[in-house]
């Protein structure tokens, strides 16, 4: 009783094939487990609320480029962590930011705190 679905690409077209950022991956692409190394390992050390606000990730990959003709550079980031069930390293969040110069205060936009990345800051 399944509707005919002979195109395997069908799921990819959900949003017109467009990449919508930020993109979150909430589980391991290999085994489907939702438990990640940093969160698990830190849950006795950092209050749950804090963990929620500043999601810890093991590693980040960054790429900044100043597109010709644009006013501000663009930064792409992939935040990665490790599945505690199978060890797969996977991207948890993919983001894109326009690096506008910050003017003191008055930004108004509600922004999630930056992720905690060991070895930074
Ligand atoms: Zn896994």
Outline of this structure?
The protein has 121 residues and is mainly β. It has two helices and four strands, in the order E-H-H-E-E-E. The structure holds zinc ion.
Integer average pLDDT: 81
Structural class from helices and strands? Answer: mainly beta
The separation of the N and C termini measures: 56 Å
Q: What ions, cofactors and ligands are bound?
A: zinc ion
Portion in helices: under 10%
Number of helical elements = 2
Topology order in helix (H) and strand (E) letters: EHHEEE
Poorly predicted ranges: 106-110
Give a count of the beta strands, DSSP E runs of length 2 or more: 4
Spatial order of the strands forming the largest sheet:
1-4-3-2
Inertia-based shape:
globular
Strand content: 15-25%
Descriptive notes:
The chain has 121 residues and is mainly beta. Helix content is 10%, strand content 23%. It has a domain of 80 residues. The chain contains 2 helices and 4 strands. Strand 3 and strand 4 form a beta hairpin. Bound molecules: zinc ion. Zinc ion (ZN) binds next to loops. The site of zinc ion (ZN) has 8 residues, from loops.
What secondary-structure arrangement, pairings included, does this model have?
Layout lengths: L22 E2 L12 H6 L5 H6 L5 E7 L8 E9 L6 E10 L23
Antiparallel strand pairs: 1-4, 2-3, 3-4
The chain binds zinc ion.
């Amino acid at each position: 009783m399944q509707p005919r679905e002979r195109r395997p690409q069908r799921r990819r077209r959900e949003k017109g094939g467009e990449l919508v950022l930020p993109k979150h991956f909430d589980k391991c692409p290999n085994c489907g487990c939702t438990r990640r190394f940093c969160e698990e390992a830190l849950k006795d050390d950092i209050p749950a609320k804090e963990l929620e606000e500043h999601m810890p990730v093991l590693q980040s990959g960054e790429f900044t480029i100043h597109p010709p003709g644009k006013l501000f550079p663009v930064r792409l980031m992939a935040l990665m962590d490790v599945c505690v069930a199978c060890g797969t390293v996977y991207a948890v969040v993919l983001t894109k930011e326009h690096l506008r110069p910050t003017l003191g205060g008055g930004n108004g936009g509600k922004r999630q705190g930056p992720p905690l990345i060991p070895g930074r800051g």
